[in-house]
Write a structure and sequence with these properties.
This protein has twelve helices and ten strands. By secondary structure, the protein is an alpha/beta fold. The chain has one domain (12-278): 2-enoyl-CoA Hydratase, Chain A, domain 1 (Alpha-Beta Complex). The model has no long low-confidence stretch (mean pLDDT 93).
Length: 286
């Protein structure tokens, strides 16, 4: 008998309660885990706190061997169209500290954990319009609601678009389309996203989770080792792009963040930028 014992892995019953203020979690008997990100039960509102919780959740889920497939989505009719009005008070109080802790470290962990710490298949659901869509676009398979709109607002609120969204757009759209989307805040409809290869399927919102479970059932039909090793194949392009671009992009964004010496994710900045998406316009200058 070994002189030492294994350290116990995370238990679903414990971490589902630990993360309940940020994510609703439901797991079936075969290990298919549904995670719905929320703020007070509704659509995600960006904050320092939920930004950090995402990476913590992904690492925890990845460390639990009883999880076999992850379905990740937002809540309600929008994916992420607002920031928490008080969600960046910490950043404003100590810009130097939080530019590293939030803008650089947490952000890198969020993106890299999705690709590197989850050795199980992932299905992302873009449940409505929103920014920071990289977290579902970089899942192995992505489904979108038929009224979803994908866009990046960083440039329009005075920030460098280099915190993972650039990885997603450049990989999926190519150099020219990504440059246009990042510089203009282009609002990409779900149908256009399907045509351009950003998402795999488009469905009415109320059918997204049902369809994701159907796709999951097919994936789960193969042996555990086959499923897990296949993720290493299908994620290879993301792994390479992360190694090549992620840290440098975050470093560039953080430099711009600190140079401005003010928080740039406040609700007033974001609201004025997302209005054009709500109004059905292509961008905020047409």
């Amino acid at each position: 008998m070994s002189l030492q014992s294994f350290v116990d892995p995370p238990k679903f019953e414990e971490y589902s309660k630990l993360f309940k203020d940020f994510f609703r979690m439901e797991r079936t008997a075969d290990g298919v885990l549904l995670v719905e990100a929320h703020t007070l039960g509704g659509p995600i509102q960006l904050s320092v706190q939920n930004h950090r919780a995402l990476g913590q959740m992904l690492k925890t889920v990845g460390a639990d061997p009883e999880n076999e497939l992850l379905i990740l989505t937002g809540s309600g009719e929008e994916f992420m169209m607002r920031s928490d009005p008080d969600g960046f008070e910490l950043e404003q109080a100590d810009m130097e500290y939080w530019a590293y802790e939030y803008a650089y470290k947490d952000g890198r962990i969020n993106v890299s954990s999705l690709v590197n710490d989850l050795e199980i298949p992932t299905i992302g659901l873009m449940n409505g319009p929103g920014f920071h869509s990289e977290i579902v676009l970089m899942c192995d398979i992505t489904l979108a609601a038929d009224d979803a709109t994908i866009f990046d607002l960083h440039y329009d609120i005075g920030s460098v678009p280099a915190d993972g969204i650039h990885n997603a757009f450049q990989e999926l759209l190519g150099v020219k389309r990504a440059a246009y989307a990042l510089l203009t805040g282009e609002a990409i409809t779900a149908q256009r996203a399907l045509e351009w290869g950003m998402v795999n399927e488009v469905h009415p919102r109320d059918q997204l989770i049902k369809r994701a479970r159907e796709v999951a059932a097919h994936i789960m039909s193969q042996p555990r080792t086959t499923r897990r090793l296949t993720t290493q194949i299908v994620r290879r392009p993301w792994k390479q792009r992360i190694v090549n671009d992620l840290d440098g992009g975050f470093g560039i964004q953080m430099f711009g963040h600190v140079a401005k010496k003010k928080a740039i994710h406040g609700d007033e900045h974001i609201k004025s930028t997302v209005d054009y998406v709500r109004e059905g316009r292509k961008n905020n200058f047409d």
